[in-house]
Amino acid sequence: MTLQLRYVAGVSPAKWLRVWADRRPDLPLVAQRVDESAQLDGVHEAEVDLAFVRLPVDASGLHVIPLWEEQPVVVLAKDHAFAEEASLTLADLADEPRAPVQDDPAMTIELVAAGTGLAFVPHGVARLHARKDVVAVPVTDAEPTRIALVWTLERDDADIQEFVGVVRGRKAQSSRGQASDEPVLSPAKAAKKAAAERRAAEAAKGGKGGKASKSGKPARPAPRTGAGAKQRSRRRGR
User: What is the per-residue pLDDT for 170?
Assistant: First the structure.
């Protein structure tokens, strides 16, 4: 038995595959890169267990966990007038011809190199298909794209949740609830949260109205003073 994983260009799953191989040698994970146009192929049919996709997708019948945003860039031929720019805007490029978009981003970028026009792609895609005859320039006001992990509602089981935990950086001993409901905390935030939980626990030990003493026992309330206290003392014969 194996887990089938698909991912689009721009995703680098190697680190998660290594963690999974160490953690679950009993369940090999087979990963394959696919064209964006085919990123959901086989998912609904249960031929693919999980997929890293580029949003948006039709989420019907799917669990969708958005992960990270991708910086948009424009790919230009190296001799283009804007090739030396540190960054560009959509207005800068409004009148520039565009290369015909292909299912395979590498083919789109090849058309850019051939001088047919420019192409907008996520930075990870441009890096994957880097060539000496093109450049990638950030587009500061273009909408970023986003990568998500998806799987079907019917396929939601312990193995799937364990892989979700791997992607989120959860340790092997952590619970499923921590993986699916809470983001991974930085060490500083984790320490702050732990301190808050300790303070809450100490307050609970001290009772509803008082604080806990250093010995761990509920502290006695402070003695009352004033006219009201004297009247109560006389009534009690003190």
Answer: 81
Q: Give the residue with greater pLDDT, 23 vs 231.
A: 23
- Residue ranges of domains in the chain: 3-69+146-181, 72-138, 187-212
SS (H, E, C) the chain: CCEEEEEECCCCCHHHHHHHHHHCCCCCEEEEEECHHHCCCCCCCCCCCEEEEECCCCCCCEEEEEEEEECEEEEEECCCCCCCCCCECHHHHCCCCECCCCCCHHHHHHHHHCCCCEEEEEHHHHHHCCCCCEEEEEECCCCCEEEEEEEECCCCCHHHHHHHHHHCCCCCCCCHHHHHHCCCCCHHHHHHHHHHHHHHHHHHHCCCCCCECCCCCECCCCCCCCHHHHHHHHHCCC
Higher pLDDT: 171 or 99? It is 99
pLDDT tens readout for residues 154-167: 988 999 999 999 99
Please determine, for residue 109, whether its predicted confidence score (pLDDT) is greater than 90.
yes
Q: Do domains 3-69+146-181 and 72-138 have the same CATH topology?
A: yes
Q: Domain 3-69+146-181 adopts which CATH fold?
A: D-Maltodextrin-Binding Protein; domain 2 (3.40.190)
By residue count, the chain amounts to: 238
35 vs 177: which has the higher pLDDT? 35
Under CATH, what is the fold of the domain 72-138?
A: D-Maltodextrin-Binding Protein; domain 2 (3.40.190)
